[in-house]
Amino acid sequence: MSDGKGAPTPDLTRPKSVRAHDAVLQATRELLQEGGLPAATVDEIARRSGVSKATIYNHWPSRTAVAAEAFGGQMADAIPLPDIGSATGDLTEQARRVAAFYASDAGTVFAQLLAAGTTDPHAGEYFRDFFLVGRREAIRTLWDRARRRGEVRSDVDVETAIDLLFGPLIFRLLSGHAPLDADAAEAIADAALHGLLAQDTAK
């Protein structure tokens, strides 16, 4: 039986299987914190967790998929949602928090996993499922809150809004071409929320 990501579905109703699964994720989190994705090899994960390589590959299709699940589970609540009271305030503050996250050591691991997903399709799926989906759902909460208050355009799709607001931060993280700090986050949020064209040319 497969989980759809290339690995057999582990039977997590069995205590031994659950313990092995959790031990692997914990060991992987420690390795990611210590040395990023390069440190989280299957050999090292197996050594630290005490779980065999065969069992690891029975649960995950690749070591990057293990890392993506471990990272996503740890970072799911790493960026709490603000509730300032306005769309501009909430989304700008969220952009600041996301920028600070990307500028941290965790942001380095995020970039490594994002890059790895371009060559390892299984890792990309795990990364989306265990990290990106949750983060985008959180931002959807802010957008829906603003839409109920009539503060944002109802015809703008939330996925488009998320990409406009936060995509530039990821690009800066990956390219390093410009600062990734609170001022940059505010400038990007302002441009996304209020537009780039001068008022008299916006029509």
Summary of the model, kept short:
This protein has helices at residues 15-39, 42-49, 53-59, 63-75, 87-102, 105-116, 121-148, 158-175, 182-194. By secondary structure, the protein is mainly α.
Question: How would you describe this structure to a colleague?
Answer:
By secondary structure, this protein is an all-alpha fold. Helices cover 69% and strands 0% of the residues. It has 9 helices and no strands.
List key phrases describing it:
Tetracycline Repressor, domain 2, about 200 residues, about 70% helix, 9 helices, single chain, mainly alpha
Stated plainly, the CATH topology of the domain at 75-196 is called Tetracycline Repressor, domain 2
Major sheet details: none
Taken as a percent bin, the fraction of beta residues is under 5%
Q: Helical percent range?
A: 55-70%
The residue ranges in which pLDDT falls below 50 over 5 or more consecutive positions are none
Would you state the CATH class of the domain at 75-196?
A: Mainly Alpha
Order of helices and strands: HHHHHHHHH
Number of H/I helices: 9
Would you tell me the structural class of the helices and strands?
Answer: mainly alpha
Q: How would you summarize the topology of this molecule?
A:
Blueprint: H1 15-39, H2 42-49, H3 53-59, H4 63-75, H5 87-102, H6 105-116, H7 121-148, H8 158-175, H9 182-194
